[in-house]
Amino acid sequence: MVKENNFNIFISAAEASADAHSARLIDELHRQFPQDRCSGLGGPAMANASCNLLENLIDRSAMLTHAFKQVGFYFRLRRRVKQHFIENPPDLVIVVDSPAWNFHVAQAARQLNIPVLFYIAPQLWAWGAWRINKLKRSATRLACILPFEQQWFADRGINATYVGHPLFDDEPPIDPGDLYVRGNSRFPTVALLAGSRSHEIKKLWLPMQHIAQKIQQKYPDARFVSAFHSAANEKLLRQNALPQLQIELKKTSIEAVTRHADLTLVASGTATLEVAAQHCPMIIMYHVPPLQWHLIGKWIVKTPYLSLVNILAGRELVPEFMPFYHHTAAVTKTALDLLENQTKRQQMRNDLKDLIGPIARPGCAKNVCKIINQMLPHY
To answer: What's the pTM value of the predicted model, to 2 decimals?
Structure first.
């Protein structure tokens, strides 16, 4: 049986999405193990879930070269984490996504013989497969959120379990009277989703609007909608909105803006799975500087497709423009071809429904808790 005294669980999350997934997991942990104690690295969502934060990393989350500006902070934090493990040894360490940082946390734990659960497997199958030995040394167990990952990691000697995707643990709140989810007779309704990070919005928002202008020339009654999740995102979207193009912007869910859309232009990432869950035809875009792609990207990426939807499908189920270099002509042509072909759009809807059905199910946090229960000390 599992020991009855309080559990001491440490969770590390370095991105806003990981903070949200961790908070949901902490809520489920508290339901199953009411006396547990949770500490860690994360953000406001984890703090609201009664996790004692050693450091708030969410405001410091960085991408690519921006991370180098904070090397000193993370070097000192690594030492603090290891000292924390020595002084307050946890029963289990859970690291959530962000392998660049969480490998360090995991290694500090393993050096002290503390078991480590990697929740949200690093995407070594896409690039950086050479890190598999590093993962073996760092992880006791691995919780995978994509169906094919379990076998991929198991074939390489890692104890991996598919737990489902945390994106679908909760039904998104949809207001029945919301303008975005009402059926309407205007055609087409096109959703523009340029991403949640500022650098994504800066690279994709204007090109998406230029494509929308071309669609409006063909369809004068076209309706354009978009969603944002923070005041900072709203400000960036409005500051860079083309005055001659009317776009309905609202703080709402991706599900709300795509549920009755005829087409979505979406930045690559987990948002594509949210669009797929609504069976909405989509075109996926992601900007990479040409020099960076040709010198580095094309040599390290090992998958034939770059978007999650097409990786899961094993084929180009939806058009993807990755890398995208700000040349909108090809994307515009593809968008207009889809809008002009109802049969093709319906086939894409059917294909997305078949693809996402087994994935878009709740229960991820509960499945992770089953692994946690197996990893906690038993007497």
So the answer is: 0.85
Residue 2 lies in a domain: no
Residue type, 330: A
What are the structure tokens assigned to 219, written together? 């369809």
Which residues touch 271 (CB under 8 Å, ≥6 apart)?
A: 193, 195, 196, 254
Count of domains forming the chain: 2
pLDDT digits (tens, 9 = 90+) for 272-301: 999 999 999 999 998 665 555 445 544 455
Give residues with Cβ within 8 angstroms of 287, minimum separation 6: 200, 203, 204, 323, 324, 325, 326
Measured in whole angstroms, the distance separating CA 253 from the mean position of its chain's CA atoms is 14
DSSP character string of 303-320: SS--SHHHHHHTS-SS-E
Are the CB atoms for 231 and 201 separated by under 8 Å?
no
Coil vs helix vs strand at 321: strand
From CA 300, how far away is CA 320, in angstroms rounded? 19
Q: Could you report the per-residue pLDDT of 225-266, keeping only the tens digit for each?
A: 999 988 888 999 999 999 999 999 999 889 999 999 999 999
d(CA 366, CA 29): 8
Give the torsion sign (CA, 305, 310, 311, 315). Answer: negative
Return the CATH number at 143: 3.40.50.2000
Q: How buried is 197 (Cβ within 10 angstroms: 0-12 exposed, 13-18 middle, 19+ buried)?
A: middle
Q: Which of 91, 123, 84 is nearest to 105 (CA)?
A: 84
Is residue 184 situated within a structural domain? no
Query: Do 300 and 278 reside in the same domain of the chain?
Result: yes
Which range marks the domain in which residue 310 is found?
A: 189-356
The verdict on 269 and 166 lying in the same domain is no
What confidence tens digit (pLDDT) does each residue in 308-339 have? 899 999 999 999 997 766 789 999 999 999 99
